Every structure is written in structure tokens, then in C-alpha cells.
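User: Could you check the structure of this?
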Amino acid sequence: MTKPISPPPETGDRGRALPAYLSNGLIGLRVREIPLVAGMTIVNGYVGEHHERRVEAAVAAPYPLGGDIALGGLWMSQQPQVVRPIDQAYDFGSGELTTRFAVDLPECRAQVTVLTFASRSHPTLVCQEIEVVVDSGCDLEVRARVDVSGLRGRQVERRLDTPGEAEPVCDGTLLWRSEGDLGECGVALLTEALSEAERHQEPWDDLGPLSTTYRLKAVAGRPYRFRQTASLVPSVMHNQPQRQAARLIQAARELGFDELRKRNRAAWDEIWKGRIILEGAGERWQGLADAAYYYLNASVHQASPASTSIYGLASWIDYHYYFGHVMWDVDAFAIPPLSLIQPNAAASLLAFRTRTLEAARNNAMLQGLRGLKFPWEAGAGRGEEAAPGGASAAAREDHINLHVARGFAFHADATGDKLFLRDKAWPVLEGVAEWLEDRVEPAGKGYAIREVGGPAERKEIHDNDAVTLMTSRIVLQRTAEAARQLRLPARPAWNEIAEGLEPVLRDDGAIADHEGYRTNEEQGGAPSPLLGYFPYWAETSAATMRATFDLYLGLWPDFVGSPMLPALYGVWAAWAGDRALSLKLMEEGYGAYQTGRFAQTLEYRLDKFPDGVASGPFFANIGGFLTGLLFGFPGLKVSSADPADWAVRPVVLPKGWTAIRCERLWVRGKPMRLVARHGAERATLEPV
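Assistant: Sure, the predicted C-alpha cells are below.
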């Protein structure tokens, strides 16, 4: 396996660019260019009340890898002007971030190297090693600290002992409760010095920070290394999260830092066996694919208790990051590639929806409907609607239900797991089908869905949103098929309604986005109907499909720069047979969104929205891009059929691209190789 392309090292100050984002799917860290200065920590499932909007939100947890350095008794935190960033390098192959900075004082100068990673083998752990080299002899002090400065919430408990034990298992534990008392996070800290050093703590400071300080006489030119490992546990996973964190940090202590690093690297080696290779596309596009693959896989884990947000476990202080809510984009664009790359992680994301089915049922009942209605913005704690304010989208964007149901069906088809289909997918499919029975209205010889919005999220509501109708038909048909597979009774209304859901056609034969659609209306260029064709594989006449592609591909200049759908433009252009346009729209709809440090794909293109905020990595764009690479260009229609029959259309790739390869995908529990060569009648999906 060739090594993935990592982004180039960054030098100097970060400015307005986003900090590096590290994650293992349970813990997400924003690491500053001086890593000992607290960045931001998001723990999957840890929630609080947002200080402004007063809704349930993912909130910052204690920063577990903070610290400080003193030379000759002068602490760098007290005089930050003496600290100078040198460079920061991110290795996507191992998920490791290496940072170098200098501390310049008249009496002594130190160069500091910090290695940081979030463990994939032990997902509650984040690890850091600090190496200090001084240019002249001096007193050196290095402090490891769980930093709570600036956090909202309160410290409930801080202990340096382990209750009932003669010797503590770690440096200490901390229990932090969020604002609004909606969640708790337990932290356990473990530190060590690899050189002989005096160790100091403050046992009397019950309300102070959890920290450990090492002191020694440093000799010029000799490297001194210090390590800190922390375990973070959210209360959604344990009722005494600080006690469980102590248990898990003891396991880390027994293994040791080097073994944890080795196992983390091995875990990443395993994930990278599914690397998507773009032949003929050039190094830039391969780098874009590797960055997308890395960030998506880094942000999910089979240990993720609350799915993942539209930014993974990333957040920062300058934007709302949609409050860390779980949104339909994850079900639509992250589940499909993950079902073939990390199927256990995909199942974990879907398990959040299963765990919160009661909230979806209550949400439907509150709107006077039967069945399930999944929230527009689900809070990670209980899966309830958490959209701020009046949240008109929460009431009218009914397509969310269909993406969730389709995500379950897709995973069942990709894995071939009959128990998952019966126990997990079926309750969702049946509940959404039941909701649809209530939601549709008879109209002429068919059915209509009134007063609804679509993915373009316009201010006005309309009748018969095209992608809602197209995906409703697909979900109802798949639900009826699931009933047959499971030998369960299927309601006759499902097929009847499915056949009666027809999108509105324009005079030119193209599918109208909704009744009364005009190309010059708000978001008139949004290609939402094309979403029905891919990735949902809606079936219409060839003439309707051709006219619909012609219409919305012609409107691309009016829509690129916005999030989500533009990442699929390249696939749609390839399906229309225009390789040159496909390459151009890959750049316009995805490539131009990746700016700043460490290849983080942004939500909006800032050249199109100069007043916007650089926020990323944005998984609607990333997931759409990867979905196109794995399924769109190869023409793979994942279904309950034999995987040998999934390739259903000729392979057309962007201009210059010759093939898309993936040496290891998990299909029906077995490793498979995907090869999609431009011009081939069909892609091949074969056992490894």
C-alpha cells in the first residue's frame, strides 16, 4: 500500500486559519500551534446548554493536554511574547501531529517538540509527548495540566487519590458538569518524565486545576522528554465517568505510551487499506481524496455513542458549528462510504438513531403524525429536536426522515447483515413508512406532499418538493422489499403510495424542483432533483433524466460556493457524458472549498461568500465527494442484489482520470477490490 499524501507542514503563526483537528471518533481536539496552550475538546455525547441559544449542544470539555514550561523559574504562560512557533506537521498516515516551537529568554533558549495523537485502539485516550532541548544549563520545569480555563460549567470533583487504594492509579481525576446540567465528562490524567525529575502536585487545592509539574536541572543539548495521557469519558456512556476514566487510564499505564502509539499506528494502517486511488488524476486530486478519507475516518469509531456531527468532533470559537447536532447529511453522505470502509463505525453511527427512536416517535406525535419523524438537528444526548429558535426547517424539511431510513437500508444491503435488517433497519423503515402514510395527501390519481422544503432550504415552502417525492418512493419500495425479505406483512398502501408519487415536470421535460418552480427564484440554481438520481438512483424515463441533467447542470454557476450538493456536480456531469465539465465541476464544487491549514474542507467557498467564516472540516461536502468517488463514478448501485450486479452503468471519469481503485472494501463481510476504469462497460467488484 502506498502512503497517503499528508498536507505540507505549516510554519509560523496561524493567523485566522483554523487550528489542527485531531480525532478518534470519541474525542476531538483543536490543537493550537503552541499545543500546550489549551485549544478545544469535544467529546462525543457530552452535551450542555448553549450559552446563547439555550438549546442542547455539544459543548467544550476540559482540555486534557494543556501545559506550561518554565526556564529559570520564568513560565512561558506568563510572558507569551517569548514563545515563537516554528512549524507544525500532520501525518495523515498515523493521525499524529508534530509541533515545534521555541521559548527565547535572555538567559536560556529552548526548542520544544510536541507529538500529539488521539488513540484509535483505546478511544477514550489522547496522548502527548513533550521534548525540550535547552541551549544552556538552567532549571527546567514542565507542567502537564487538564485545562478548564474559560469553560462553561463547573468542576464537581477533583481527586489526586484513587478511593480505597493505597496508591493512586494516576495523577488524578476530574468530574466536569456542563452548563444547564445536561451532561458530565470524567477525565483521568497520567504523566511521566523519562529523565529523573522532581514531581510536584497541589493536594490541598480542591478547586484548582488537575496538574503535575516536573523539575530538573537541564544540561545544554540534552533532550528531556515528558509524557501525558488522558482518558475522557462522557456521562452518556457511564454514570460515574471519572471513575471509569481512572479504570481506563490504568489500562493505558500498563500498556505504556510506546505501545499505545504503536497500536494507534497499526489501527490507521488497517483503515488505510481502503484508500481510494485516483489514477491519472494527479497528486493534487489524490491529496484531496486522502484528506477527505482521513478526516471522515478520523471522526468516527465503533465507540461513538452519538453518531457524529456535520463537522465530526470539530468546533471552534468563531462559529456555531451547528452546535454539534446530528444532522441528515451524516446519514446521507457519511454512512454509504463508511459502510464499506469502516462498517462497524457506520453501524455505531446508526445505533444513535436506534437509541433515540423514542425521541423520533415523540417528534412525530407532537406534529400529529404516526410513525417516526427524525429531528432536523438532533441533540447528541437524547436525540430530541435541538434546532435553535423557531427552526422552521425542523417542521418542513421532511426529507430528513428519508435519508435516515435510506441509511439503514443501505447499510443492511452493503453488509448483508440479516440481524441488522430485522432488528435495527426494519423498525426505522416501518416507522418512516407509517409516517409517510399520514404525511401524503391524495391528489388526482396519485399523492402529494404539501408544504414542504427541500435541501436548498429556501425561505418559502412549496408543494411536492422533487427530491422528497423521489426519495419517498424509493424508501417505500425498499420497505416493502424488506417486509418480503423478513417474511413480515407489508401494508398495501406502501406500494400504492410509492407508485403515486410523481415529481412535477416542466414544459421542457425536466423535473421541476417543486410546484411553481422558477430558475430565477431564491436558490433557483440548486440541483436538488439530481440528488434523486444520484446517490439515490431514482428511476424515470431516459428523456426526463436527460432534460433534468441539462437544466440543472446549466445552472451550476448560480449555486457553487454553497455547501453540500456541489460536491456531487462532477458525478452528475460525468453521467451526462461531459468529462471536461466533470473535471471543471469537481474543482468548482469541491476542490475550491479546501483552503487554509491541513487540508480542511470548508462549508462555504470564501471566494463566493467573502463575509463568511472559515469552518471545517465539513462532512456534507467531504461525504458527498467520497460518495461520488466510491459509488457515483464507478456506477455502483448498492442493493439487496448480488454485489456482482451492483455495477450498473458505464464508467465515465473526469477528463484525464484513468481509473478509480480501492484495494479493500468490506462487502457482505468479505474484503473486495473495486476497479473502475474509464471507458469500461462496468466497474468490477471482486473478492481480494
